[in-house]
Design goal:
Blueprint lengths: L3 E10 L5 E4 L6 E4 L7 H6 L8 E6 L13 E5 L14 E3 L9 E7 L3 E5 L9 E12 L2 H6 L12
Antiparallel strand pairs: 1-2, 1-3, 1-9, 4-9, 5-8, 6-7, 7-8
The structure holds zinc ion.
Length: 159
Amino acid sequence: MSSRVVTFHYVLKDKAGKVLDSSQGHEPMTYLEGSGQIIPGLEEALKTAKTGDKQNVHVKAAEAYGEHDKSLMFDVPRTQFPPTEKIEVGMKFRAGSPDEPSPVFTVTSITEQNVSVDGNHPLAGQDLFFDVEVTDVRDATLDEVKHGHAHGPGGHHHH
Ligand code: ZN
């Protein structure tokens, strides 16, 4: 069976119903099935989706951005950062080498000695609630399958 390319609009809410993100007023989201372009729990829920479908999808934290991992929160001595670099709360950086993917760390607080960082995704540990409207479903093109991502509006643009 060939992979599909699914295009959808969404409103993302947290447990309390607060809107965290939305595609309204933007291009819809487009993904190639099986390519990891969207969170696993949402892709699973849209597996049989057809054009025009509206769905409310509840994605458990583990199937979204993962459980909150305390071991990804730690202090780094200020001396580990280049002295010329201005460190600010909210700054993001990736540790490790280019061929070894590591989480993105966010600076959460700074003291004279230490920089506290958090490698959890901002939405880690949260159940997510999506209102989804599927606007298009089609078979993936050979190029898309080869590239491992969807092309076109909302998908990958080649320059
Ligand atoms: Zn491509």
